[in-house]
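sry for the spam today, last one i promise. struct tokens for design, 289 residues
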């Protein structure tokens, strides 16, 4: 059993969320969240003094972490780094007690780190236009379907949406990133007034950024049901596609206090996501929708 240290410390002062309540959330959500984490290296976003104080990202597993926490030694530019691999509830609770607000996970697993089993598109609004993000996500889904790919969607707990395509790990990151880029270009070409792939914020002019940069070795994304370091204690939540048409849907409306009511009412939309692992098709110029 993991001991909670300083349980009354406020990690989210504006919402009066103590470490005790925060850790309890990760303990309760573990059965639903762990399938999206198992086997993946993580980068830890930590706020030891709460989210109103500076936080930091930590990739290397500290030497003082207990031996029962699984780690993996993985290559980085110029060397190696030992990452935490979160595969059980005890590890998730331990990390929460260390004020790891978000355990950002890789798009690949430790046994084949160069072969992603996820392709992710991050739809990020420049001006808070979430209805536009929902529309773009649906267009992206249809474009991916045109290429024979099944896609899934989730809120990020921040401002936008992630569209995820489960893969069978037969393509490497270079192939996946190139394909994702071509999809993004095609999507933007069909709607240049509302979408962009320009990395420069000054050039986006209120358009939605279609970001494919996460599709690379050692890049990460906030996994399903992860808490975000924002007021309101929002979490990243898988959605059914039809929910994008729900009036009033917001990217940060689900939080650690209301998610369990949602899960009581409906089946986890991503429960079987890995059963849909699929081959990355070959892109042809004539394939653009």
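last one done:
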């Amino acid at each position: 059993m993991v001991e909670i240290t300083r349980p009354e410390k406020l990690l989210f002062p504006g919402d009066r969320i103590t470490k005790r309540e925060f850790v309890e959330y990760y303990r309760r959500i573990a059965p639903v969240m762990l399938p999206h984490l198992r086997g993946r290296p993580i980068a830890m976003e930590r706020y030891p003094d709460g989210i109103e104080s500076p936080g930091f990202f930590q990739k290397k597993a500290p030497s003082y972490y207990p031996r029962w926490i699984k780690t993996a030694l993985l290559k980085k530019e110029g060397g190696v780094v030992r990452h935490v691999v979160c595969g059980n509830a005890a590890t998730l609770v331990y990390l929460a007690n260390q004020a790891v607000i978000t355990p950002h996970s890789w798009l690949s697993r430790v046994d084949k780190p160069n072969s992603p089993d996820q392709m992710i598109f991050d739809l990020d609004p420049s001006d808070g236009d979430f209805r536009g993000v929902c529309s773009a996500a649906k267009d992206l889904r249809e474009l991916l379907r045109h290429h024979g790919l099944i896609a899934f969607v989730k809120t990020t707990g921040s401002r936008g949406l992630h569209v995820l395509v489960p893969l069978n790990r037969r393509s490497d990151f270079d192939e996946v990133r190139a394909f994702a880029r071509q999809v993004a270009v095609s999507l933007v070409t069909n709607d240049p007034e509302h979408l962009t792939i320009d990395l420069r914020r000054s050039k986006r002019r209120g358009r939605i950024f279609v970001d494919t940069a996460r599709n690379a070795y050692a890049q990460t994304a906030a996994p399903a049901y992860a808490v975000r370091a924002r007021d309101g204690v929002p979490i990243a939540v898988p959605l059914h596609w039809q929910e994008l048409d729900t009036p009033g849907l917001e990217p940060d409306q689900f939080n650690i206090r209301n998610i369990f009511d949602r899960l009581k009412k409906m089946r986890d939309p991503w429960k079987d996501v890995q059963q849909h692992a699929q081959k990355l098709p070959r892109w042809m110029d004539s394939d653009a929708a």
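The helical segments are 19-33, 89-97, 130-146, 173-190, 259-265. ok im logging off now
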